[in-house]
Amino acid sequence: MSDVEPEVADADAVERAESDADETASRAVENPILEVEDLEKRFGGIVAVDGASFAVEQGSITGLIGPNGAGKSTTFNCITGVHQPSGGRVVFDDEDITGDEPHQVANRGLVRTFQIARELPEMTVLENMMLAPKNQIGESLWRSVLPYFRDEVIEQEEELRERAWETLEFFEIDHLAEEYAENLSGGQRKLLELARALQTEPEMLMLDEPMAGVNPTLERKLLDHIHELREQGYTFLIVEHDMDVIMNNCERVIVMHQGAVLDRGTPAEIKANEQVIEAYLGGEV
């Protein structure tokens, strides 16, 4: 009997190891564009983010969920340079961007939107769009005023205007081009903010509560645009409290709880995790 038991034990161990390997593989990211490693953020004695690690697949729509106070917004802020991490590492497109300033992160192609749209209200929609692109010649005082560069400035402005119109048409808000941004509805402001983000020619967009304050019709339109952009190769990381939006539109979901990553996987895997159900989803998915 003693000769058989070790073999059974070994077989059980192998089976468990294979099961763990399968589970790990199902949650693995093969081609990450964003990698967050052991991220920490402390505010005095308060630990807002506690060793969070996850990756976002290039060309995917990934959701980031968790209860209030889970550390989602702070994680967003640490990734995009709004906050300096207390520890850990952020890698975007194989470049370490840990501690970079927000404009440096954006210039690398990682752009975020905010829960409350941050357009310039006293400017028109088109003017807001024209201000968004990075590295404009007119940003340099000398190049903008010297006659030698005047033709170059005019040419770039025409190109940016044409691109702005194309983007407004894509989001179906070109009819609002001459409207002041302060007169837009909440949903229209979200469309404008996403359109402005696209003007920066990003590789990845981080959306903070994109559906907040958006009526169902505009929500569907916004989601359609996100899927179209994803098909064009853009990557999305979305923080959203609406579970239907996350579960029905994201290929992968990351769950945060008390500053750490509780789980990551497909929507089906997340729905099947009892810890997630208990910690966040109130016992029902």
UniProtKB/TrEMBL annotation:
Ranges where the ABC transporter domain occurs: 34-283
Region: Disordered, residue numbers: 1-28
Keywords linked to the UniProt accession: Amino-acid transport, ATP-binding, Nucleotide-binding, Transport
Gene3D superfamilies: P-loop containing nucleotide triphosphate hydrolases (3.40.50.300)
Record family assignment: Belongs to the ABC transporter superfamily.
Protein purpose: Probable component of a branched-chain amino-acid transport system.
Protein name per UniProt: Probable branched-chain amino acid transport ATP-binding protein LivG
Native source species: Natronococcus pandeyae
